[in-house]
């Protein structure tokens, strides 16, 4: 699980979701675009929910690992959508083997 720091707060989400979110945020920034995305998170009370993020050129988000964390929220459709949007913005971008190597990629058909 990873803690996404955003503005003056943070949320907890799954490793793969975080990786896809950061990739998409970067692609939007390079394209000088923005988007509102929905990702699964763990609330302060410990339940699973969805959070909305406005990401784009001015986004200042980062993540940190949460060691020994409980079951992480996971939604393959969210990750696939974020990755598809990233590929749409950066169709010729090579794979990201050197990025967030501590987080496995989600394998899905293109």
Describe how the helices and strands are arranged.
Blueprint: E1 2-6, E2 9-13, H1 15-31, E3 35-42, E4 48-55, E5 61-65, H2 76-89
Antiparallel strand pairs: 1-2, 1-5, 3-4
Helix pairs in contact: 1-2
Features:
alpha+beta, two-stranded antiparallel sheet, 3-stranded antiparallel beta sheet, 110 residues, single chain
Report what the structure shows.
This protein has 110 residues and is of the alpha+beta class. The protein contains 2 helices and 5 strands; from the N terminus they run ββαβββα. It has helices at residues 15-31, 76-89; strands spanning 2-6, 9-13, 35-42, 48-55, 61-65. Strand 1 (2-6) and strand 2 (9-13) form a beta hairpin. It is globular. The model has no long low-confidence stretch (mean pLDDT 86).
* Quaternary assembly: single chain
End-to-end CA span: 25 Å
Strand order of the largest sheet: 2-1-5
Largest sheet: 3 strands, antiparallel
Indicate the radius of gyration in whole angstroms. Answer: 13 Å
Structural class: alpha+beta
Tell me the number of helical segments per DSSP (H or I, 4 or more residues long): 2
Q: Helix amount, in percent?
A: 25-40%
Percent in strands: 25-35%
Instruction: Name the average pLDDT.
Output: 86
Poorly predicted tracts of residues? none
Order of helices and strands: EEHEEEH
Global geometry: globular
List how many beta strands DSSP finds: 5
